[in-house]
Specification:
The protein has eight helices and five strands. By secondary structure, the chain is α+β, with helices and mostly antiparallel strands. The chain folds into two domains: 89 residues, Winged helix-like DNA-binding domain superfamily/Winged helix DNA-binding domain (Arc Repressor Mutant, subunit A); 85 residues, Winged helix-like DNA-binding domain superfamily/Winged helix DNA-binding domain (Arc Repressor Mutant, subunit A, Orthogonal Bundle), CATH 1.10.10.10. The strands form two sheets. A three-stranded antiparallel β-sheet has the order 3-5-4. A hairpin with a 6-residue loop joins strand 4 and strand 5. It is elongated, with a radius of gyration of 22 Å. The relative contact order is 0.10. InterPro entries: ScpB_csome_segregation, WH-like_DNA-bd_sf, WH_DNA-bd_sf. Keywords: Cell cycle, Cell division, Chromosome partition, Cytoplasm. It comes from Cryobacterium frigoriphilum. This is SMC-Scp complex subunit ScpB. Pfam families: SMC_ScpB.
């Protein structure tokens, strides 16, 4: 029996929207910086207009807003939200859970940092404010997960956003000063005695 082409097209269209939503949700879950609609559209190979509508659905879904389609099940308000920042979209933990997460990170997570985390933290401390891409360039490795770890530990923070690229610049926090037992970053040891030729991105530090 030949399927009704109209029914088939409607089914494909109805199924495409949820699939697009899940694809974008997966991308945004691992994004460390706000993602523009154009960038998201390129990643999922869909028109920007469709991605814009999908992002709006995700925002409503995460916020627990009842869907306009009565046939769709109601959602609950998540502990995270999809927020537009610096011309892009990124998933953030809701502000009301900040105290809970701070307590969890400081009391439940292991306090010892890996060698990779320590090296990344050192780069940020000496070169701040600095973007994740610049840190990766200096270390010559991907630092996405390490930056997330340092953010989670409260040792670094998002200091500013580059107006042209939308890249987030990171800086250290007062918690790092307390952990190191110093009053300011001026008390960090000079790097010049430790570097033979000032290479690897630290040539401008005395």
């Amino acid at each position: 029996m030949t399927p009704d082409p109209t029914t088939t097209t409607e089914t494909v269209t109805a199924d495409a929207a949820p699939r697009l939503d899940r694809k974008l949700e997966a991308l945004l879950m691992v994004a460390d910086e706000p993602q523009s609609l154009a960038l998201l559209a390129t990643a999922v190979a869909c028109p920007v207009a469709e991605v814009r509508v999908s992002v709006a659905r995700l925002v409503a879904d995460f916020d627990g807003v009842p869907p306009s389609d009565a046939a769709q099940p109601a959602t609950v308000r998540r502990g995270f939200e999809l927020r537009e920042v610096a011309g892009g979209w990124r998933i953030y933990v809701r502000a009301e859970h900040d105290d809970l997460l701070s307590d969890f990170v400081l009391t439940q997570n292991p306090s010892k940092l890996s060698q990779a985390a320590l090296e990344t933290l050192a780069v940020i401390a000496y070169k701040q404010p600095i973007s994740r891409g610049s840190v990766a360039s200096i270390r010559a490795v991907n630092v996405d997960s390490v930056v997330r770890t340092l953010l989670g530990r409260g040792l670094i923070t998002e200091a500013s956003t580059d107006a042209e690229t939308g890249a987030i610049n990171y800086a250290t926090t007062d918690l790092l000063l307390r952990q190191l037992g110093i009053n300011s970053l001026d008390e960090l040891p000079l790097l010049s005695p430790l570097l033979s030729d000032g290479a690897n991105g630290f040539e401008d530090l005395r």
